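thought: user wants a sequence for this fold. calling inverse folding tool.
action: design(structure=
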């Protein structure tokens, strides 16, 4: 069956990659939204406003609603739990109820931070055991999304990197700091699966095509220490890796307790779709190869997505 897609949070790192992947597949993108950062062709939406979420679904009648929208700032969530819960839990559940009542399937993006990081290689069968507010919000939202409709998809991802308008993700931060010759302290005792965002988007599209439902871990193929990943990124981008200072997590000032070994097992998604998670070197290589063209590419999406091409930057 052909889908008609609505992307809530289309201006973000994951949302923008989803738009590229669905456009490349010639799937109909009915609309995509932003929240604060106005962008040509995107519609404004605050998902805390349930009436506006419902109005959007009634207007565009999507069969699939992707929700990469969130407040993903872990420290901000820790310091402002009530404010961020209204977005990450209440806002998510507004979308889940609207999807249920309009017969649309929902794709919710969750996180490795639903786990405590004591074990590593968590499977979809492992019970969530968050140790910070962001993780608690994600775990609660996951349950609500699946309770609203078991056909919904919950995709847990981790350390997403790729091109984006604001250099927020880890790889772009490394590029920004090291290219100015600034040293950067990086955790030497945190292990996770960095995820190339275009690979996450391709796998998401494949899962939607298969009408998969439930929880899937969609992360990069490699479990790697954060400092080692940073060093490989520096090498790939021709930057001085000696500026990366290996540092114990406990010495990196943060108000948030963070999981140390939050790697995720990807056996379930590998068995479900032909599109597989890729490793760090392939992800970085693909990111570099996209460098000269990604802005042009994002601006020259064919119809109907031309109307949602980003104009920021
Ligand atoms: N990036 C990662 O490494 C990572 C890892 C694990 C899980 N995740 C999860 O994956 C999802 C996507 O992350 P991301 O990195 O793409 O985030 P992002 O780049 O910060 O994008 C977030 C998107 O949500 C929108 N948004 C924020 N508040 C909103 C609200 N109240 N109502 C409607 N839209 C709102 C933003 O719009 P404006 O920009 O216009 O404000 C933006 O389009 C999130 O659920 C995140 O928790 C991400």
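)
observation: tool returned 313 residues.
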């Amino acid at each position: 069956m052909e889908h008609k897609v609505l992307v809530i949070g289309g201006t973000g790192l994951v949302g923008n990659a989803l738009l590229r992947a669905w456009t490349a597949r010639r799937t109909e993108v009915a609309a995509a939204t932003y929240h604060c950062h106005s962008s040509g062709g995107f519609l404004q939406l605050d998902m805390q406003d349930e009436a506006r979420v419902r109005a959007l679904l009634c207007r565009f009648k999507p069969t699939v609603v992707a929700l990469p929208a969130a407040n993903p700032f872990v420290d901000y969530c820790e310091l402002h739990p009530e404010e961020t819960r209204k977005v990450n839990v209440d806002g998510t559940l507004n979308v889940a109820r609207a999807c249920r009542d309009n017969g649309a399937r929902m794709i919710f993006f969750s996180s490795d931070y639903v786990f405590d990081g004591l074990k590593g290689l968590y499977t979809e069968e492992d019970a969530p055991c968050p140790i910070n507010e962001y993780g608690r919000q994600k775990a609660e939202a996951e349950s609500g999304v699946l309770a609203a409709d078991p056909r919904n998809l919950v995709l847990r991802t981790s350390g997403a990197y790729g091109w984006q308008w604001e250099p927020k993700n880890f790889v772009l931060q490394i590029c920004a700091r090291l290219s100015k010759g600034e040293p950067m302290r990086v955790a030497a005792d945190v292990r996770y699966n960095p995820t190339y965002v275009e690979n996450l988007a391709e796998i998401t599209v494949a899962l939607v095509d298969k009408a998969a439902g439930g929880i899937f871990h969609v992360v990069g193929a490699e479990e790697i220490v954060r400092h080692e990943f940073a060093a490989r990124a520096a090498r790939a981008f021709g930057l001085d890796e000696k500026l990366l200072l290996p540092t114990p997590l406990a010495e990196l000032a943060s108000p948030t307790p963070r999981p140390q070994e939050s790697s995720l097992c990807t056996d379930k998604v590998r068995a479900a779709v032909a599109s597989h998670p890729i490793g760090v070197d392939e992800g970085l290589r693909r990111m570099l190869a996209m460098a000269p063209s990604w802005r042009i590419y994002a601006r020259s999406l064919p119809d109907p997505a031309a109307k949602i091409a980003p104009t920021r930057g």
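thought: summarizing for user.
answer: Here is the designed sequence. The first strand starts at residue 4 and ends at 8.
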